[in-house]
Specification:
With about 525 residues, the protein is α/β, with parallel strands linked by helices. The protein folds into 3 domains: about 25-40 and about 50-200, Rossmann fold (3-Layer(aba) Sandwich); about 205-410, ANL, N-terminal domain (Rossmann fold, 3-Layer(aba) Sandwich); about 415-520, ANL, C-terminal domain (GMP Synthetase, Chain A, domain 3). Helix content is about 30%, strand content about 25%. The protein contains 15 helices and 26 strands. A 7-stranded mixed beta sheet has the order 2-1-13-12-14-15-16, sandwiched between helices. Strands 4-3-5-8-9 form a 5-stranded parallel beta sheet, with helices on both faces. The longest helix has 18 residues, at about 50-65. It comes from Mycolicibacterium litorale. It holds the Pfam family AMP-binding_C. Belongs to the ATP-dependent AMP-binding enzyme family.
């Protein structure tokens, strides 16, 4: 694995206390013993205490152990619900590998993820936001050679396993004790190949990440995180499941984002921290202005995941008078590569902050990073081959420059669109649409959008005019079972696509033309 190949860096991580000889399971047991009544997760009216979380997670862990071997993959495709914390910790206590999956994904993506990870169990809602997950899992599992057991949380199980069954008379047995350097999470990220790649994290890579957050984001025991970001993202998962135990905080979950509701919730629960992509900050600021509150308990807002306008950071800093508002940079592979510039408002707005525990270098303009919080590799070793350089630095595919000791991300070499903080692989969409009726050639690119950061635009050379529109593409992609957030929001009809001498489509030229047209 890239990090462990260097014994000196491993020794340094342990010496600095970033890596330790214990796991989150040990921390949960200690918390239940020392502060049994402390609330770790708040989900509407439901409160999970340290003792309650240990009791529920232990019961679930025993059921998991009776059904599968240690190290098996346990997936959950849940909204920001308290049951997800039980699943996360139950799998941890049982020595399983957790696999968070975005609820916004559909048949096409889910079929690949479950098969690729060889998931042995998946937790889903019965229905959520009008979508029938129970029915979708019937369709998906019918196509798999080794389908996982499907557990339905909240709602009609529709022939699957009801969630409460796993807590009825848990079978006796002993739980596997995982080592802190064992893989405990596989989280998928969109890649330029069009095939999602499974990012592997250990107890210790995540522990290092949490230590960095503690030391750089003004986190103290008793603080409260508002968590609207999806728990299937690395950010949402650590704020909801890791920080409450490792840092003594409380996670206030929001199952769906509503800025006005968030302001009311943050005021009532005296939330001190929040992190999210640009639209979260824009909408929270507007809602707070409408409510005439400066959220006096808010200490820190961390903004990343998409293009962040400096003017937005300045406006939010001026309005939230007690809070430090800062841009940061990171990825699923190297979470929180930079920690922001919380004590330097100008650099907080103009740059993406300075590195924390990660080392960052620029090679021909490309950002490369390594550190104790980085992935230990991808699920498939072949994905590692071009992802790391000879010194073990992760090739981010992003471009940047230095402003003193602060980093400025200037663009992306990788062909990824980031819309509302969600990664979209253009190649995946292009492959599904290529050859469809009316399409001779297609290139999907991201163009700036004030509301979502970026939006997907499909540039099409049609077989005949006028060519397909957004509704036509939506029908095709939905028929493939593609998640709605990946469907292009704009179509441009061109006579040809710009290419180099080798025939490669020049997407930077396409983006430049579309961006210029938008500004006219």
């Amino acid at each position: 694995m890239p990090l462990r190949s260097d014994d000196s860096r491993v020794a340094d991580a342990y010496a600095r206390g970033l890596w330790v000889d214990r796991t989150l399971a040990d921390t949960l047991r200690d918390a239940a013993r020392d502060t049994p009544d402390r609330v770790v997760v708040l989900d509407g009216a439901h409160r999970l205490t340290c003792a309650g979380l240990l009791e529920d997670a232990t019961a679930l862990a025993l059921s998991l152990t009776a059904r599968m071997a240690p190290g098996s993959v346990v997936s959950f495709m849940l909204p920001n619900w308290h049951e997800a914390a039980v699943v996360y910790l139950g799998a941890t206590l049982a020595g399983m590998v957790v696999n968070p999956i975005l609820p916004s994904l559909r048949d096409h993506e889910l079929r690949f993820l479950l098969d690729d990870a060889d998931s042995r169990m998946i937790f889903v809602p019965g229905r959520f936001r009008g979508h029938d997950y129970a029915d979708m899992l019937h369709r998906v599992t019918a196509t798999l050679d080794r389908p996982p057991e499907v557990v339905v949380v909240r709602g009609d199980a529709a022939g699957h396993t009801p969630y409460p069954v796993l807590f009825d008379d848990p079978p006796p047995g002993s739980l596997h004790t995982a080592a802190p350097d064992e893989v405990r999470m596989v989280m998928y990220t969109s890649g330029t190949t069009g095939r999602p790649k499974g990012v592997l994290h250990t107890h210790n890579s995540i522990h290092a990440l949490i230590c960095q957050i503690r030391d750089h984001w003004r986190v103290e025991p008793g603080d409260t995180f508002c968590v609207p970001s999806p728990i299937a993202h690395i950010g949402g998962s650590i704020y909801a499941f890791e920080c409450p135990l490792l840092l003594g905080t409380t996670a206030v979950l929001m199952e769906r984002w509503d800025a006005d509701a968030a302001v009311a919730l943050m005021t009532a629960q005296r939330c001190t921290h929040m992190a999210g992509a640009t639209p979260f900050l824009e909408q929270l600021l507007a809602a707070a202005e409408r409510a005439d509150t400066r959220l006096p308990d808010l200490k820190v807002f961390i903004c990343g995941g998409a293009s962040v306008p400096p003017s937005l950071i300045r406006r939010a800093t001026a309005f939230f008078t007690r809070a430090a508002v800062s841009r940061v940079y990171g990825s699923t592979e190297v979470p929180v590569t930079t920690v922001g510039a919380l004590d330097d408002p100008e650099h907080a707005a103009e740059t993406d902050g300075r590195p924390g525990i990660a080392e960052v270098r620029l090679v021909d303009g490309e950002l490369r990073a390594r550190g104790p919080q980085m992935l230990v590799g991808y699920l498939h070793p072949e994905d590692d081959l071009d992802s790391f350089d000879e010194d073990g630095f992760f090739r981010t595919g992003d471009l940047g420059r230095w402003d003193g000791r602060h980093l400025v991300v200037t663009g992306r070499a990788k062909d990824i669109i980031i819309r509302n903080g969600e990664n979209i692989s253009p190649k995946e969409i292009e492959d599904l649409l290529a050859g469809e009726v009316g399409i001779a050639e297609i290139a999907v690119v991201g163009v700036p959008d004030e509301r979502t950061g970026e939006r997907a635009c499909a540039v099409i050379v049609p077989t005949e005019r006028p060519g397909p529109d957004v509704a036509d593409l939506s029908r095709v992609l939905r028929a493939h079972g593609v998640a709605p957030f990946k469907i292009p929001e704009q179509v441009a009809i061109w006579d040809s696509l710009p290419r180099n001498d080798a025939g490669k489509v020049l997407k930077h030229r396409i983006r430049s033309v579309l961006t210029t047209q938008k500004g006219q």
